[in-house]
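[Discussion] Sanity-checking designs against the backbone

I'm trying to build intuition for which residues belong where. Below is a structure token string of 310 positions. I'd appreciate it if someone posts a full sequence so I can compare it with mine line by line.
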């Protein structure tokens, strides 16, 4: 799929405008409620789906199908991001009013990580056919870990990136409003909120590798991979505030996400065998069916416990 330079420029400008609007509307660091989060989530999802329609009219059904499949798998994996972000915020006792700021800058970092991984990953797959086997094996292993090692106790302050930053940058162990840096006894130091941001970025770095590898199993078109990632990640903040209270009910979702990662790995490996690439409609069907089954299973399993708590 050949994409002209102006399409990349237009997309970059649109993403910058959306981020600027979001930052402007939340500049007062207010606590985001469910209704506001749901409204923003609907807006981001509508934008992502609308772009898919534009892509369909512009490039045809195959490109649009690859985009929608990639968008769905990225959106599904972002739910696991939300779960981890909730653990980090709870671990560091981040005030609710400052969580959006951390997520906003975290999303910008996530977009940059993914942009780099997309071009590197797509370049490797197109240059060296055997990298498909490596990426495929990595996705299958990641899926296995998600299925059988999910929910282990987390210690964000032990993350190697967080520990390295704390060694290099003088850090105060308190919050100072919504500031990432402040002055203590005349010295400029990083605040605890900056440490939280680093923990979020370090965690998302791992998610970025998984998600980019998963969508590269669907298509190696850098434009489609990037747009699917961008529209899924742009809604990550609102998704967090929308789903934070429901995460306890998604008890079986990690099995579905693990299966999708493993499926993407198998799909990537098969693409370099006589079987070839699996058709996009089949991929879309597997993604939708897997999410529907695991979310439905989770809701049924937790219905009684939720009824007793309410």
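Best answer:
Here's mine. Compare freely.
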């Amino acid at each position: 799929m050949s994409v002209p330079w102006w399409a990349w420029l237009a997309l970059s400008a649109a993403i910058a405008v959306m981020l600027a609007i979001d930052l402007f509307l939340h500049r007062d660091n207010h606590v985001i409620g469910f209704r506001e989060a749901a409204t923003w989530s609907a807006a981001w999802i509508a934008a992502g789906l609308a772009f898919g329609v534009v892509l369909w009219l512009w490039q045809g059904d195959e490109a649009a199908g690859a985009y929608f499949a990639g968008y769905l798998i990225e959106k599904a994996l972002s739910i696991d991001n939300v779960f981890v972000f909730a653990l980090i915020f709870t671990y560091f006792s981040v005030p609710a009013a400052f969580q959006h700021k951390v997520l906003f800058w975290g999303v910008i970092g996530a977009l940059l990580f993914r942009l780099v991984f997309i071009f590197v990953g797509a370049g490797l797959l197109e240059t060296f056919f055997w990298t498909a086997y490596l990426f495929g094996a990595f996705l299958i292993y990641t899926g296995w870990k998600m299925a059988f090692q999910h929910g282990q106790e987390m210690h964000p302050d032990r993350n190697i990136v967080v520990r390295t930053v704390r060694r290099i940058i003088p850090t105060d162990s308190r919050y100072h409003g919504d500031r990432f840096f402040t002055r203590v006894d005349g010295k400029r130091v990083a605040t605890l909120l900056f440490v939280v941001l680093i923990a979020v970025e370090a965690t998302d770095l791992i998610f970025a590798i998984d998600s980019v590898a998963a969508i590269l199993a669907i298509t190696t078109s850098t434009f489609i991979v990037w747009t699917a990632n961008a529209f899924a990640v742009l809604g990550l903040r609102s998704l967090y505030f929308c789903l934070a209270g429901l995460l306890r009910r998604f008890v079986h979702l990690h099995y579905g996400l693990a299966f999708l990662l493993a499926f993407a790995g198998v799909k990537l490996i098969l693409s370099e065998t006589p079987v070839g690439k699996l058709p996009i409609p089949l991929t879309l069907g597997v993604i939708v069916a897997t999410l529907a089954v695991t979310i439905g299973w989770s809701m049924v399993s937790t219905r009684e416990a939720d009824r007793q708590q309410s």
